């Protein structure tokens, strides 16, 4: 029964939370802003428009459409992502949540570029769907783009197209393995524990290895995604970003 006790300790406790945020006064919002800038802006951007973390300046947060859900995400983090647990007091969490809600009411400027031409570039010249998916179309090596316009700001998307190796998420580390038989495998690390490692190779196939069957392996923050600095002109980059910003389907 020890394993059951340990499992229960790992689960977030059930919370008797109010359905609506009780701390939304101007003073609470100002305190939430200060806390956000000190604890959250490094990943989500000072204006909440994304960076290493997701874009929070949207009308509806996909993971936290209700206040209780947003409180829970801030307090306990998101498993298997770089969103950590919070050590803030409950009132401070509510204040940050109130400020995060206000970010979605910030007016965003129109994005320059032609989304229709951008769609052609993403599907054609850019070759993006070899690795990324839009809905049921495309590959599985990279993260889905289906709702990237909700999660990432135009500035972040442009910077990733130009410098894709900057701020690679932990979940998309590259792995390079060599088996005892001499077979070399490169791909995205999906999971790793003490005894095994699972990767998605560059063809999109899932592969699993016992570490005892490997003569070498390493993981590092790099990406097979190329820079589009030389591939796209400035106007083509704007078009591609305009298309990606328009993608607001289900995440």
In CATH, the architecture of the largest domain is Orthogonal Bundle
What value does the Rg take, in angstroms? 21 Å
Number of strands: 7
Q: pLDDT average, as an integer?
A: 85
Low-confidence stretches: 1-11
Text of the CATH class of the largest domain: Mainly Alpha
Order of helices and strands: HHHHHHEEHHEEEEEH
Largest sheet: 5 strands, antiparallel
Name the shape in a single word: globular
The fraction of residues assigned to DSSP E strands is 5-15%
| CATH domain topology of the largest domain | Cytochrome Bc1 Complex, Chain D, domain 2
Number of domains: 3
First-to-last CA distance: 38 Å
Which strand order spans the largest sheet, edge to edge or round the barrel? Answer: 6-5-4-3-7
Q: What helical percentage do the residues reach?
A: 25-40%
- Give the full name of the CATH homologous superfamily of the largest domain: Cytochrome c-like domain
General description of the model:
The chain has 251 residues and is an alpha+beta fold. It folds into 3 domains: 91 residues, Orthogonal Bundle (Cytochrome Bc1 Complex, Chain D, domain 2); 74 residues, Cytochrome c-like domain (Cytochrome Bc1 Complex, Chain D, domain 2, Orthogonal Bundle), CATH 1.10.760.10; 47 residues, SH3 type barrels (Roll), CATH 2.30.30. It has 9 helices and 7 strands; from the N terminus they run ααααααββααβββββα. The strands form 2 sheets. The chain has a 5-stranded antiparallel beta sheet with strand order 6-5-4-3-7, with no helix packed on it. A hairpin with a 4-residue loop joins strand 3 and strand 4. Helix 4 packs across helix 5 and helix 8 packs across helix 9. The longest helix is centred in the N-terminal third of the chain and has 14 residues. The two termini are 38 Å apart.
């Amino acid at each position: 029964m020890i394993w059951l006790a340990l499992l229960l300790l790992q689960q977030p406790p059930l919370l008797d939370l109010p359905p609506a945020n009780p701390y939304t006064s101007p003073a609470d919002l100002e305190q939430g802003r200060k806390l956000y800038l000190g604890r959250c802006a490094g990943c989500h951007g000072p204006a909440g428009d994304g960076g290493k973390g997701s874009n929070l300046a949207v009308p509806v947060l996909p993971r936290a459409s209700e206040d209780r859900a947003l409180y829970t995400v801030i307090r306990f983090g998101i498993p298997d992502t770089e969103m950590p647990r919070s050590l803030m007091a409950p009132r401070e969490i509510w204040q940050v949540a109130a400020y995060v809600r206000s970010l979605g009411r910030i007016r965003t400027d129109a994005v320059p570029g032609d989304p229709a031409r951008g769609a052609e570039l993403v599907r054609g010249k850019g070759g993006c769907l070899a690795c990324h998916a839009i809905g049921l179309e495309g590959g599985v090596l990279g993260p889905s783009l289906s709702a990237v316009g909700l999660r990432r700001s135009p500035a972040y998307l442009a910077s990733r197209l130009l410098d894709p190796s900057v701020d690679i998420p932990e979940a998309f580390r590259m792995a390079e393995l060599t088996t005892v038989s001499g077979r070399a495998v490169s791909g995205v690390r999906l999971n790793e524990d003490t005894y095994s490692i699972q990767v998605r190779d560059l063809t999109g196939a899932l592969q699993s290895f016992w570490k005892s069957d490997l003569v070498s392996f390493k993981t590092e923050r790099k990406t097979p995604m190329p820079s589009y600095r030389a591939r796209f002109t400035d106007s083509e980059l704007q078009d591609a970003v305009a298309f990606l910003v328009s993608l607001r389907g289900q995440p």
